């Protein structure tokens, strides 16, 4: 399917969608590498304008390949992508100046300083205004905390400094959309906090931000929306409440000796699943049963309530459950 076949106007691109105007949209986006590896499989990405979209998934789940396709750096095997309503890669020249990107391996010169590298990028960009280049480079370096190291050669930069320079390059001018692939890679905790702060600031100023990470905790606090990838497929996408809604709460009743059987029968009688007993504790999945029904039914059945606890899983637990993330990478 090519973008010519799939007209954005016909599929409601940019309006009409339940989620409102979109800054990034893909339909059936697929990448099969020559090795036969399907890195991205039939992806329908939906990044609303103004969102901070956390693009999450374990190592190897297809985030970088997706981002490279969005930016026209990798050609999709099938499907289509739009950035700011413009088809990619066809409209790359027109739309990419409005898009700041931080992707792996930016083309920086090792023997030039950070500042001179930015100047070189500016000089290569025909759409940039040379009169304001120095000021904008200085501001971008300051925003990413690189002013002190601005005149050091790139090859002497630490990984974190390189990452900051990549961010500075994305911020050389105001952007409507920022696409950041693992921006906290190589940063220390303070640097990670600064990136979060920067993302929030940019979003407050109206920029849409698509930010990938394999660590939910790193970007959870700034995301308005999430998309979770597993083995090249999107397993969950929407505003951040979809994550919470996805979590399954558990209830735990603690009672006295001799009453655990009765407690288990109460829980099962209410239709709760996975009822299990451990010492004086009886656990079950709460499902959509109200907790107060469980406590009331227990008391009515003569079960002493020594303890009563409802546990909501953390976002991290939900993320791990969805992605099946373990120590090994996906593939
Ligand atoms: N050029 C390539 N040729 C063959 N396979 C590739 C190529 N690039 C990526 N892959 C494979 O595609 C899959 C997805 O990789 P991708 O880099 O998109 O994942 P990711 O989610 O960005 O992971 P990470 O968090 O580790 O960067 C992986 O299995 C990877 O080995």
Automatic annotation (TrEMBL):
Keywords: ATP-binding, Nucleotide-binding, Transport. InterPro entries: AAA+_ATPase, ABC_transporter-like_ATP-bd, ABC_transporter-like_CS, P-loop_NTPase. Pfam families: ABC_tran. GO terms for molecular function: ATP binding; ATP hydrolysis activity. Signal peptide: none annotated. Residues 24-256 form the ABC transporter domain. Residues 1-22 are annotated as: Disordered. PROSITE patterns: ABC_TRANSPORTER_1 (PS00211), ABC_TRANSPORTER_2 (PS50893). Belongs to the ABC transporter superfamily. This is ABC transporter ATP-binding protein. It comes from Cellulomonas biazotea.
